[in-house]
Write a structure and sequence with these properties.
TIM Barrel, about 400 residues, globular, nine-stranded parallel beta sheet, single chain
Length: about 400
Amino acid sequence: MTVTFKNIRPLVGGKLQNVCNIVVVDGVISSVGDVCKGDVVDCGGKVCAAGFVDIHTHGGWGHDCMEATEESLAAISAYHLYTGITSYCPTTMTASPDDIDKAVDSIRAYRRTSPYSRVIGAHLEGPYLSQKAAGAHPPKLLISPLDDDGFVSRNLDAVTRVTVAPNVRGADAFAAKYAPAGVQISLGHDNSIDDEIYACVDAGATSVTHMYNCTSRPSRRDNPKKHLGLTEVGLIDSRLVDEVIADDRHVPDALFGMIFKLKGARGICLVSDSLSVAGMPEGDYYIGAGDSKQSIRVEDGVAVLPSENTYAGSVTPISTMAKRLIAQGYSPEDALTMATLVPASLVGLTDRGDLRPGMLADFNLFGPDFSVDTTVLAGKIVDRTALLALRG
């Protein structure tokens, strides 16, 4: 099937182009230019960018990735597609080995057949995290890679990325083992010093998990010497891309401005870190499942752990984050790049995240305020109203 999306302003390579046409053949972009053939959809000169890519999200519409069911992943995938996210990494919580394996097994099975947002592969956020920076992860279930790295080795075909704290035993060896195997290593939930962090970066780690949320600061160990923490290394080391939850809660807007000045658009990856309660009304809920299940509350546009008086995760999709940033004065090119090209490149995707011939025809058209107006998946316009039927 051939269809032309006519009169469109595409974002290509991080730069907005003049009005042109995108020709799609069998769900893949055939050309970006003057060609017009097949069925025609007139887009009225709207800005167009590749579908958003969220590489850190735990759920949405009342379901959590740890539920490990087709039903839960279908609802989560539909939620993401509804918000303009066309590809994502279902993210696990720290849990028992059996619960993590079940979650990854379900992700492996579902990603082959998802009719909604595309499942890239699992992101294991834990169990290789620091006891002193566990956040919403159950401390009693945290381990080091030296205790057991079997979660990754036996699931290598389904795991896309892993968060590990540089100060846990064997973190650098873990990065050296799995980064060459195609697993994207992210650093976070840590109590590290710069020596440990640089050892992991030298071994292949390429990102920081949700910057300024459970990322270490300058500290001392056994002598008066002060070391940089992961926050500082993430800001100054060009080898690291910083995940940022740009919801003005996890990272206040003024703090985002500082990160942007230091890293630029190509050094920032917008992530939602969204929970099962994303897209749901305010109230009391749970996150995780089995041993990782915890009570949370959604209030004032964010999820909190009432027992810890701290944020548990986001309820804001990255489409809203990008829109907010543009409203604050960041260029559409930069804001959209941080939500498309950067995350796709970080996890090694070469068939999405941009609008070039040969790439998947997954993209969004935007209204004047950069709200998502229309989402296209594999060259077909998404019926967003129909997706609401899967809301929990």
